[in-house]
Amino acid sequence: MELEKRKRGLGWKITVLCLLLAGIICASVCISGYHQYRASTFRTYNDFAYKLAATALAYVDGNRIAGYLEGGGTDAAYDEMDRQIYTLYKNTGLTSIYICVPDEATMTVTTIYDVRVHDAQNPQAYALGVVDPIGSDDPQKVVDVYRTGKRPDDYFIRKNSFGYNTSAIVPVRNDAGEVTALLLADLPMPFILENLNAYLLSTVGITVVLVFLIIFGYLRFLQKRVVMPIQFLTKNAEAFAKCRTGFLDEMLNIHTGDEIETLAAALAKMEVDITKYINNLARVTADKERIATELAVATQIQTSMLPCIFPPYPDLKEFDIYALMQAAKEVGGDFYDFFLIDRTHLCVVIADVSGKGVPAALFMVIAKTLIKNHAQAGMSPKQVFEAVNDQLCENNEAGMFVTAFMGVLDVTDGSFTYVNAGHNPPLLSTGGAPYDWLKSKRGFVLAGMEHMKYSQQQITLFPGDSLLLYTDGVTEALNPREELYSEARLKAFVNSGRLDGCTLEKQLHLLRQELAVFADGAQQADDITMLILRLNEKGDQNG
To answer: Are 254 and 357 in a shared domain?
Structure first.
């Protein structure tokens, strides 16, 4: 039903538009033609009035005008002029032939002759010598003709008490060529107006018929070559949108030889492409969901590989430890680890594998397993890193590497032996003093080069001392302005007093909140991993 409405709407709009166009064309043609014909007719009719005035002028003796004006009487020549002009008046349909002398000072005319005196019923006739205001819409023009003796450029159309006329004004000259009077001849306009009205009616009728025949033919053409193909394309698009079924063969059979044919071909191709795209998208979505499920499982596996139960050793009061990791992707390359080598030795590890995602996670599993195995075999931190480095370098075609920090705490005397393989320096708070960087020799990264040697160092921790390990995802956290959180901000935060009196778990969560506030929603490119260790008391060497 909606489609039918749109069909009628499209045809209706085109029809209305064409009718409006037809109306505008008709009006333009008629108005333009009428004005041109009117101007031409008025000019021709006025020229005819001038020809009649010239004929009447031939009967006037300009040398006698002054005598008629001064004496106020007529003579035989005046009577002969009257006879001939009256004959012309009766035979030509003129409404008036009038001879007068204008006075520019008073804007009046003195009558010399008025043919209408023969009509006793005509109250507008003027006798010889009558003075009257110049009866014209533009009296100055009459005076100018008398003064210059030249015919005006435009024509006179007068509508007054004498009727609706076109006037011819010619100068009457004496033998010396001087203008002695003006002769005015008036032709009635009603005949011309009737002619114009007849022309207008015939022009309007013919134009309307022709234009509407053309518009009707054009509408039929548009209906067949434009409206119907567009309606078909609309129906096809709706069918495809509802159930992804169209009429490809029918669309390819649209041959209008213009943009509509191109549109039909493009729409048919688009339907084929969209169908392929939707089918491919369904497969990709299914694959993506499967990968997402697998990554979720991988995340759980990776998380389960890291110590995540706190406190890990409830029976051991000598130390407290807490750690957390936040991966930038589903799985990451950062890891931490802690485990008891024996009853009195605790090993802590934090590391960052190059790269992100599944490759980094797999390399992380290998590195973590190797470090733990060698440490539990009784090797020193230095020996552990040297052995792990050589093993990781084997078949490392991907060129991945690991930055790592490892330390072993002897809870009996507080000695802490550590080694650094290119990792960020930990922060150490000892004796209640503020946190400061733990001095360590940064060796080369693991898996970077075979047969590397590492240096281990040792410090003594006392009850209450804390050690904060972290990866570069902490110090290199970015905000929307692409500013780094930096080591300076990290050190300032842990020494700000906000961590005082808090449990280790609370301290790391406060630090993570601080990073979240700093990031302000910006996507992080690196994993964030932290581990904090505090020595509570020294234990019994015998366990």
So the answer is: no
Three-class secondary structure of residue 148 per DSSP: helix
Closest CA to 508 of 468, 464, 536: 468
How many structural domains are present in the chain?
2
**Rounded Cα distance, 402 and 393, in Å:** 11
* Chain centre to alpha carbon of residue 87: 81
2-57 helix and 190-222 helix, angle to the nearest 10 degrees: 150
- Residue 414, classed as helix, strand or coil, is coil
Closest alpha carbon to 325 in 161, 173, 474, 130: 474
Q: CA 381, CA 450: separation in Å to the nearest integer?
A: 17
Q: Is 25 a domain residue?
A: no
Rounded to 5 degrees, what are φ and ψ at 333? -105, -10
Q: What is the pLDDT of residues 6-64, one digit of tens each?
A: 445 666 777 777 778 878 887 887 788 777 877 777 787 788 888 998 999 999 999 99
Asked if residue 339 has pLDDT above 90, the reply is yes
Q: Tell me which of 305, 334, 354 is where a domain ends.
A: 305
Nearest residue to 350 via CA among 391, 322, 319: 322
Same domain, 321 and 252: no
Q: Give the domain extent around 255.
A: 247-305
- Confirm whether 429 is domain-assigned: yes
In what helix (H) or strand (E) does residue 53 lie, and over which residues does it extend? helix 2-57
Distance CA 384, CA 35 (A): 109
CA gap 125, 484 in Å, rounded:
110
**Residues in the chain, how many?**
543
Angle at 250 between CA 245 and CA 254, to 5 degrees: 135
Judge whether 134 lies within some domain. Answer: no
Q: What is the token pair recorded at 25? A: 């064309």
Please give the Cα distance from 530 to 508 (Å, whole number).
Answer: 7
Is position 410 within any domain? yes
- Six-digit token pair at 78? 């005046």
For 506-533, what is the HEC assignment?
A: HHHHHHHHHHHHHHCCCCCCCCEEEEEE
pLDDT tens, residue by residue, 421-480: 999 999 999 999 999 999 999 999 999 999 999 999 999 999 999 999 999 999 999 999
**Separation CA 374–CA 347 (nearest Å):** 11
Query: Is the bond preceding residue 311 a cis peptide, omega within 30 degrees?
Result: yes
Q: Are residues 376 and 281 in the same domain?
A: no
CA 54 to CA 291: how far, in whole Å? 109
Is the same domain home to 260 and 315?
no
343 and 368 within one domain: yes
